[in-house]
Amino acid sequence: MLHVDIPSRSDFTRLRSVRCDACVSIYLKTRPLPQEHDAFRIELKDFSRNAREQLEATHLDKKRLASLMEHIDALIVDDEFWRVQANSLAVLATPDILQTFRLPNHLTPMVEVSDRFHLKPLLRSITFPNSAYILALSENAVRLLEVHPDLPASPVKVDRLPKDAASAAGKSTLNDRSPVRRIQGLEGHNLRLNQYARKVDAALRPLLVGRETPLILAATGRIEWVFRAVNSYAHILPHGIEDSPDHISDQDLADAAGPILDDVYAKETERLGEVYALRAGENLATTDISDAARAATLGAIETLLVDIDGDMEGTVDEKTGAVSFAPSADATTYDIVDEIAARAFSTGARVLGVRRSDIPGHELLAAILRFPV
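The structure assignment produced for this chain is given below.
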């Protein structure tokens, strides 16, 4: 069975602020197949054992260490939790709290131990999740689907969503020719389509508020034009599935969404590459980690691309942004690129978790700056 809970920007900001004597960040590859879940539990146990060994080396208070391990052990034996999974699992734990996210993205398995959480892998889910909502809309019916890569399409229950255009107008059909406040024929039909579209938009609003998940419209003809005119959700994609969804299955709609999302991703990364090249000529862009760390600390980063799989161990000074590189990872260091991303995010930068091939020069990061540093 599938379950996805993508972190919001407020989740990221809250987790980014955590500082603790022991922060454990574990990322696993998972699958929604129940027969495989025992293997994922074993891998989580192995990662927790690795974290324990790192923390024992720092002489963490034994009671604090036992409390942290108790949180993770309780998750491992929670049958109900493991009953529903997605493509990856994030487990973020301290002696005081444990937070999980079941994610649609395919993330690299890892365990990180430090005084802060390792959050960079979550950026992929927040910024380029390859997930979307599909609004399948026609005069005859409307339904909302949630789609994620490599997973079945999932219908979403929406309160107060009208059944169809006729019922939204209080009619048995939109084809009658009776006057409606002196409006009839084609004009009356268009009026009722507008009423229908506004009711659909109003029903979706409570569900979509605060989200940035792309919305793909599957519609054709006048109803597509009418809905786009009244839509209030900022993240509806300009190009949708231009066909009537009445006789298209949920999974076929999900399959059609994949190329649309891939195109959006490709165009956006291409556009950012062009912006980077332009700003680099103005001394307003960098791929240098030390420069980016200083810029992030000063709030100078406007847009940041980071490689979600690469890392560079060390520390970053809280006040100046000066970088100290470390020869290897341990519980006293953390991923510098992750810290730069978190600092940039907290100062209002747009931070995108991407693959290294999408970053100018194939570096670990690329920063577009608000002002030179």
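Interim note for the steering committee: The two ends are 49 Å apart (CA to CA). The CA atoms of residues 18 and 29 lie 25 Å apart.
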